[in-house]
Amino acid sequence: MGVLLALALVFSYVESLIPFYFGVPGMKLGLTNTVVVLVLYLYGAPMALLISFLRIILSGFMFGNAFSIAYSLAGGLLSFFCMYLARRFLKLRMIGVSVVGGFTHNVGQIFMAVLLVNNYNVLFYLPVLMIAGCLTGVLIGIIAALIHDRIKHIAVLSQTGEV
């Protein structure tokens, strides 16, 4: 688990270095979601939730502030639970689950922004962020699916203790 958390933190750091700005504050690629989606499929929901939560808290302290932690928690936790539900009950494949995650992450962050800044005008960003979340969700889902196909046997071996 430590290696996966470290990988998520590295992705978080790398993402903070990438100038990705399309007129909407806070828009990111969501590279760290690759790790969360992979862990959800390889090791299950409890471990994926733990990795997501710890990554948000640790990266917030290392690269952000209290507001970034609040926004990330709102988006990350909503995103995780929706991805879990989409996988469990809708039986979506990895790309579909990732799209659900990208979409709902932005919804969670916007609603947290409404609460924190007490201004409903930030809701005008929602359509753009929802489209961006779907597009980046497809990209992250493709990457996660490609990685999953190459490493799923390692996860099985590590769970049986053969690695």
> Structural class, judged by helices and strands?
mainly alpha
Number of helices: 6
Name of the top-level CATH class: Mainly Alpha
Distance between the termini: 14 Å
Total count of strands: 0
Named CATH architecture: Orthogonal Bundle
The total number of structural domains is 1
How would you explain this protein's 3D organization?
This is Heptaprenyl diphosphate synthase component I. Keywords: Membrane, Transmembrane, Transmembrane helix. It comes from Shuttleworthella satelles DSM 14600. The chain crosses the membrane at residues 32-54, 66-86, 122-147. With 163 residues, this protein is an all-alpha fold. It has a single domain (2-155), classed as Arp2/3 complex 21 kDa subunit ARPC3 (Orthogonal Bundle). The chain has six helices and no strands.
